[in-house]
Amino acid sequence: MRVVIAHTDLDGVASAAIITRTLGSVDKYVFIQPQALPRVLSSVECSNDCEIYICDLSPNSEGVNSITKNLRKLASSGAKIWWFDHHIWDSSWVKEVLDSGVKLVQDTSTCSAGLVYGELGVGDSVSERLSRATCSLDLWVFDDWLGNFLARYVGYSKSENWRRRVTAKLSSGSLLDSEILEVVEDSISRELEILSEALRKCGISDLCGIRVAYYYKSVRDHVTSYIAALLMARFNADMAAICRRGSVSLRSRGRVDVREIAKKLGGGGHRNAAGFSVRPPWIYRILILLGISSPYVRWCLSRIKSAVCE
After folding, report:
1. C-alpha distances in angstroms, 114 versus 123, 133, 233?
2. What does the longest C-alpha to C-alpha distance in the chain come to?
3. What is the C-alpha separation between 304 and 74, in angstroms, rounded?
4. Closest CA to 12 of 29, 38, 31
5. 231 exposed, middle or buried (CB, 10 Å; 0-12, 13-18, 19+)?
6. Burial letters for 162-180: b for 16+ Cβ neighbours within 10 Å, e otherwise?
7. What's the rounded mean pLDDT across residues 258-287?
8. Average pLDDT over the chain, rounded to whole?
């Protein structure tokens, strides 16, 4: 049995597609956010003939102990486990994961799809093209136009079935066809509406000398980084905080190490792109359901401020 556990974005899906092309088949795909990794690993049942591939998911300070406990259990049952990730890890996390019996491939110089291709690839031109396009977008170097198309295609729907369908298409070698182009066109139309609303409804705050642009993102589209980049450029902000139900995404223009901020709040990521999970008081959750988000956003900012000004 082969199981792929990957992030929900292009890098995670592309990693899953490259694994599928390399191995020929995968029995089960699970696409998740990083905070769900402890729960998912605890539910996986594997034996001697089981292979688990974890892609584009990083531990965080709150979940690493549970993750390593579950990894040790799986490894002791005979499962073979590979973990490919390009986020920044604490040295203690690396040691704990390696000690649990996992083959860890962790490198911040490329994306996870690039790591999968470099480790498992066999010179396959489709996998190489897919990894290059993915890294272009995921590392924000934008040296391959295809990455922007594929990211919009992957993020068009949040359903598990959609991600499996996309993985199957990419693993088949179809990286650009009429269906993908139609989805991209529709996605861009939606994005323009979302970005216009973000400019109208965002806020600016000074947190101990750091200029922060913030916004409550209610839509599920994969436009968080686009919103953040737009707000930081438009308002000359050092950092953007995009608040969502249950999580906060942080982006930086380079001056601020947002990973350190997220880490203090139980999350993780990169220096210029990170995030953390939140569980606000019940009153804020009720207000969000009623369409009132400003108290929740202020609460999120207060948490960020406590980490920034510490």
Report:
1. 12, 10, 29
2. 56
3. 36
4. 31
5. buried
6. bbbebbebbbeeebeeeeb
7. 91
8. 93
